[in-house]
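hey so u asked for the seq, here:
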Amino acid sequence: MDEPKDAQRGKPSGPRKKQPRKVSPRYLENAALHYLKRYSATVSQLKRVLLRRVDRSLRFHGGDRAEAAGWVDALADKLVRNGLVNDQAYAEQKAHSLRASGRSSRVIAQKLRLKGVSAELVERKLAEATSEVSEDAAARIWARKKRLGPFRRDASTRREYRQKDLAALARAGFPFSIAKKIIDGAAE
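ran it, structure tokens below
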């Protein structure tokens, strides 16, 4: 008699999963606008988010995935035409902010490709970001943030951590020649 009423009826007690809404063009548009209010996104990324919602809804309610995928494509085209989704602006902003935070060219290119930005656009925006902050300057920023080499708190341990510091810069995507120059150089 101490069991909850749901357990007595054979139902599991506890929080129930919220059922997804039935997918429709209007629902997808509202979901896309809500997502874009919160996050900057590429066309590819937005489509991925919307298709996840479509799949969740179709598992519960059933329906035709091809039809829903068509709605997602049409919506993405509409948002691009209206200027709410712009891969070029996204790539430029992301490349500049990552470079300013000390990221290597390799890391920036990889992050942009994962977001669905075209290879040609990645190359162009990376060149623009590199013209403002060089690879050497980015490596110096990264070493300072991570307290590597000349930026260590205790300068007496700098020699014994040299290999680890070089490896850390290599993992961050910087070439060995640049890593060696930063780690063996002075803090200024």
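The longest helix spans residues 43-61. Residues 87-132 form one domain.
lmk if thats what u needed
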